[in-house]
Structures are given as C-alpha cells and as structure tokens.
Design brief:
Layout lengths: L8 H27 L3 H12 L3 H8 L5 H10 L6 H16 L3 H29 L5 H74 L1
Helix pairs in contact: 1-6, 1-7, 2-3, 3-4, 4-5, 4-7, 5-7, 6-7
Length: 210
C-alpha cells in the first residue's frame, strides 16, 4: 500500500505514527489517573471542612495523587489569603495536563482526510499526464494505476481520521468530566470554608456578649 499509494503515502504514514503515539500516551495517562482517584479521602476532607478543621483538611489532601485533592491542597495552603484564586490556578494546571495533545489529535483528524484527498488528486492528475501519446493498452494501465493510487491514499487518510476521532471524542469527554469535578469540588470548598469562618465569627460575638 505504501508503494502503490504514491508519494503522498509518506506524510500519511507519518501522520499515522504520530496519531498512534498520541493515542497510546493518552490511554496510559488516563488509565493511571483513574487509579489515583480517592473518593473516600475526599469525603473525609469535606467533613473536616464542614467542622472547620482546616488543618485536618490540609493534612488529608497533602501528598495525594488524586487531581481533585491536589487542587484542594493547593487551595488550603492559601485559605487565609486568596482561596478562590489558589483553587482556580490549581484547577487550571490539572485541566491543562488532562487536555495535553488534544489539539494535536484534532489536527490529525482533519489532516488525515486532507492528505488522502491530496493523494486522490495527485493520482488522477498523474494519470491524465501520462496517458497522452500512449496506446490504448498503455492508457488503460495508466488509468488503472492512477485510480488505484488515488483510492489507496483516500482509504488510508480516512482510516487515520476514523481511528483518531473515537479516542479524541473520548478524551475530550474525560477532560470535560474532570473539569466539572474540579469546579464542583472548588465550589464546595469555598462554601464550606466561608460557612466555617462565619460560624467562628458568630461564636466569637456570642462569647463577647456573654
């Protein structure tokens, strides 16, 4: 196929290799991250925040491999100054890691069919250039070879797009889900910290009045 598809098959081959490498790397990354989730510790952390125990919350989130807990740990280190800003920065870093190579995959999904179309056009164009001045048998052979080259290039380009499109949509959905989880957790932390501070202020006011 590589020889029969013409010179366009070389960039198509390079595109296929890049697509395979990116998809393999993302599968490995997401598989590893899915094993790092720690919902039990997250529930304990929310319970500590609800009770106003910020030190315990920071202890539970410290050193965790869970991306949500990593974000919360970063925020708890700055809860006394800028909790919301710290959570946003940490969440942005986690989303950036999760979305790595998505732009490359999107480009490959578009590039594959375009290279196949280029192979189709070049194969047909070469056919028309070579049939002039040849016999009928020679012309038929040239037409058959040119059409075969065009079809092979188109098939390979579409195959790259199809193979890369499914993982691309899957990883995009996973990235969106992680973003939702991070935003939900950050909102819960902000609300719980604000409520704990408010309870602390009210307690101090009651003590002064008494």
């Amino acid at each position: 196929y590589l020889e029969a598809g013409g010179p366009v098959m070389w960039p198509i081959l390079g595109t296929a290799m890049v697509a395979g490498a990116v998809v393999g790397e993302r599968i490995f990354w997401w598989t590893r991250e899915s094993r790092r989730g720690d919902p039990g510790t997250l529930e304990k952390l929310f319970a500590a925040l609800e009770n106003g125990d910020f030190k315990e919350a920071a202890r539970l989130s410290k050193g965790s491999n869970d991306p949500v807990l990593r974000m919360i740990w970063h925020g708890m280190n700055h809860y006394h100054s800028s909790l919301q800003g710290a959570l946003q920065v940490a969440a942005g870093a986690e989303i950036q890691k999760a979305g790595r190579f998505l732009t490359v995959m999107d480009t490959l999904v578009t590039l594959g069919p375009l290279l196949g179309l280029l192979g189709t056009v070049s194969g047909i164009f070469r056919t028309f250039l070579s049939i002039g001045g040849t016999s009928v048998e020679g012309a038929m052979a040239e037409v058959t070879g040119g059409i075969g080259e065009a079809l092979i290039a188109t098939m390979c380009g579409l195959a790259i797009a199809i193979v890369a499109l499914i993982p691309f949509n899957y990883f995009t959905r996973k990235n969106a889900q992680l973003q939702f989880d991070l935003e939900s957790a950050a909102t819960n932390v902000e609300v719980m910290v604000a409520a704990a501070r408010q309870r602390g202020v009210e307690t101090q006011s009651l003590r002064k009045e008494s």
